[in-house]
C-alpha cells in the first residue's frame, strides 16, 4: 500500500425518514438565510420539495430559491448562484438533487465568498482552498456521482469548452442526507447512467497501481459486485428499497476517498468523458458506458493480473484452462455485455455526436492521466474515440 492521510468531514444521515428526522437539527447551527438549490423540477413532482420547504418554514428559515441547475452545470450558473447568495446574505446552502446540483452548490459556496475568479484559480488549474466556503448541506435524490461525501465539483466552462473537476476537502458538505426512497422516481435512463457511473468510479480506482493484495481493492470488488447485482433489480423494480439503498451507499463509498487509500487512481475514462460532455453536453454515465470497454481493450494487457482478478472475483468467470490474458479479456467483455444488458448506449452516435471531424479537437483537449496502467497519448485517445464512434 502507498502511504496516505485520510479525513472526511461530512456527517451522513442515511435511511428512511432521515430528512424529516434530522434536517431541522442539522441546520440549527447556521443562520436563517438558506439558499435552497435544486435542478429542473423533479423535486416538485415527487414531493421532496414540499417535504423540505415545510421543515424549513417550521424552523422559521428565510428561503432563497436557486433553481434550474442543469445537468453538467456551467460556470455561468455558478456565478448566478454566487450573486444570489451574496445579495441575500446567505448563511447556508441546501442542495437538493444529484451530482449536478451538489457540484454547482460547492462551486457557489466558493464563489460567494472568494474575491478571486474561482474558475481561473481553482478549476482551470489546481489551487489550494485556504478560505472557508459557505457551509453546504445536501439532500441526495439520485445515486451515481458520490458528490455528497467529498469536496469534488465538476463544472463546465462553455466559453472555453472545458469540463473539469477538483476535490477540495473544504468543499465537503457539512452534512449529507440520503433517503433511498427519494430515488424511487429516478427514470430508468438515469438509474442506469448513475449505476454505471458508480461502477466507473470504482474501476477507475481499482485498475491502478499498486496491484498487490490490499484492503482498498477488496472493498472495491465487494462494491462492484453489489452494483452489478442491484442495478438490474432497481431497473426492474424502481421501488425496491434494498436495491436502491445498496446503490445509494455504494455510490457514496466509491467516492468518499476510502477505496482510494493507498492507491494511485486512473480516471482516464472520466477525463475523456468530461471533454465529450464539454463538446456535446452528453449524459455523464452514458459517455462512460461508451468509453469504458473500448478504453480497457486498449490497456488491459498492461494490467493483466488485475484484469484477470476482475474477471474471476467480480464477474465469477471460471479460470479453468485459460491463460491470464484470456481471462483478463473475458472480464472486459463481461463489462461490455453488462452495459448492453442494462440498456446503456455503446456508440458516440447514440449520444448524438454525428460529426466525426469533431473527435480530434475533443481528443486534443483531454487531460492525460498519470495513474493509468499505460499512459495515453492524444493520438491514442483519438483512436479510442474513433472506435467508439
Ligand atoms: O433536474 P431535475 O429535474 O431535478 O432532474 C434530474 C436530472 O434530470 C433527475 N433527477 C434527480 N433526482 C431525481 C430525478 N428525477 C426523478 N426523481 C429523482 N429523485 O436526474 C437527472 C440527472 O441529474 P444530475 O444531477 O445531472 O445527475 P448526476 O447525479 O449523474 O450528476 C451528473 C453531474 O455530476 C458530475 C458529472 O460530470 C455531471 O456534471 N460528476 C460529479 C462528480 C463529483 N462531484 O465527484 C464525479 C462524477 O464522476 C461526475 O463527473
Ligand atoms: Zn463519474
TrEMBL record:
GO terms for cellular component: cytosol. It comes from the Bacteria. Residues 191-387 form the Fe-containing alcohol dehydrogenase-like C-terminal domain. CDD domains: BDH. InterPro entries: ADH_Fe/GldA, ADH_Fe_C, BDH-like. Residues 10-180 form the Alcohol dehydrogenase iron-type/glycerol dehydrogenase GldA domain. One of its GO terms (molecular function) is butanol dehydrogenase (NAD+) activity. Keywords: Oxidoreductase. PANTHER family: ALCOHOL DEHYDROGENASE YQHD. This is Alcohol dehydrogenase YqhD, Fe-dependent ADH family.
